[in-house]
Specification:
The protein has three helices and no strands. The chain is an all-alpha fold.
Length: 90
C-alpha cells in the first residue's frame, strides 16, 4: 500500500465508512426499510438518508477547509450532528 499515504485520520475514516456499510446491511436484513417522508423534500429510505448525510459531511468539510486554517475537528462534529438530524428526522 505504498501508493497511498495512509494517515491515522484517513484509515479511521475508511474504517468508519466500512463499519457503517456493514452495520446498515445487518439492519437492512433484520428490518427492511420503507420509504419515509420527513422534512426533506422527497420520500427517502434509510440508505438515501445516509448518502445525503455523507454528501453533507463532505460539503461541510470542504467549506471548513476553504474558510478556516484550523484543523477540521469542528466540521467533523458538525457533520456528525447533521447526520444524526438527517437520519432521525430527514
Amino acid at each position: 500500500m505504498n501508493w497511498m499515504a495512509w494517515t491515522l485520520p484517513t484509515a479511521l475514516f475508511f474504517c468508519a465508512i466500512g463499519l457503517l456499510l456493514f452495520t446498515m446491511t445487518l439492519i437492512e436484513l433484520k428490518r427492511p426499510t420503507t420509504m419515509a417522508r420527513g422534512w426533506l423534500p422527497m420520500a427517502t429510505t434509510r440508505g438515501d438518508r445516509i448518502f445525503i448525510s455523507l454528501l453533507a459531511a463532505a460539503g461541510l468539510h470542504v467549506a471548513w477547509l476553504a474558510l478556516f486554517t484550523s484543523p477540521p475537528y469542528v466540521a467533523s462534529v458538525a457533520a456528525v450532528i447533521t447526520a444524526i438530524i438527517v437520519l432521525r428526522w430527514g
